[in-house]
Every structure is written in C-alpha cells, then in structure tokens.
C-alpha cells in the first residue's frame, strides 16, 4: 500500500478532485499555504494499492500543468535599509507528489 500526498495549486484542485473521484480514488483535502509565494495550495492525501499508483499520478499529471506568473517579492531590509524588489517571473503550478510506503490502511 502507498500513501500519496499531492500538493497542487488551488486553481487546479477542483478539476483534479473531480477526476480522482470519477476514477474511484478517495482522498482527504487540506487547505495549505506555500512558503515562497505565500499562495494558497491544496494538499490531497490518498491511500491506495500499489498497482493504482501510476493511475493516480497520471490523473494528477493530466490536470496540474506548470505556468509562468509575475510576482513581486516582499520588500527586504534591516534597520534603516530598504531594498526594493522588482517583479520576477516564476514557474507555478504542476504538482509536488510524495509517495510513502504504508503498512496498513484502516477505515472505521
């Protein structure tokens, strides 16, 4: 058995959850926040059989695509110093997937 933890962009989460549900996967949804962009993410926790792992990853790959976005990093500086930050282009989207071995899954 595997425990799959997928961190996806909020804008991809709804469509991904529909696809996972239609494919017969059960999951737990958590609202999370990324550290770099400080933007909302959705983390999905999925317990599944080993033989369904590739199917679950395929669902995620089909929905969660990378894209470019302009961001303005926070203003940095110490006492009396100000460093202006300029907009920069970053790649967002896609998904971060953790796959862990799981000894057992108990549903009560």
UniProtKB/TrEMBL annotation:
<dbReference type="InterPro" id="IPR011322">
    <property type="entry name" value="N-reg_PII-like_a/b"/>
</dbReference>
<protein>
    <recommendedName>
        <fullName>Transcriptional regulator</fullName>
    </recommendedName>
</protein>
<dbReference type="InterPro" id="IPR015867">
    <property type="entry name" value="N-reg_PII/ATP_PRibTrfase_C"/>
</dbReference>
<dbReference type="Pfam" id="PF06153">
    <property type="entry name" value="CdAMP_rec"/>
</dbReference>
<dbReference type="InterPro" id="IPR010375">
    <property type="entry name" value="CdAMP_rec"/>
</dbReference>
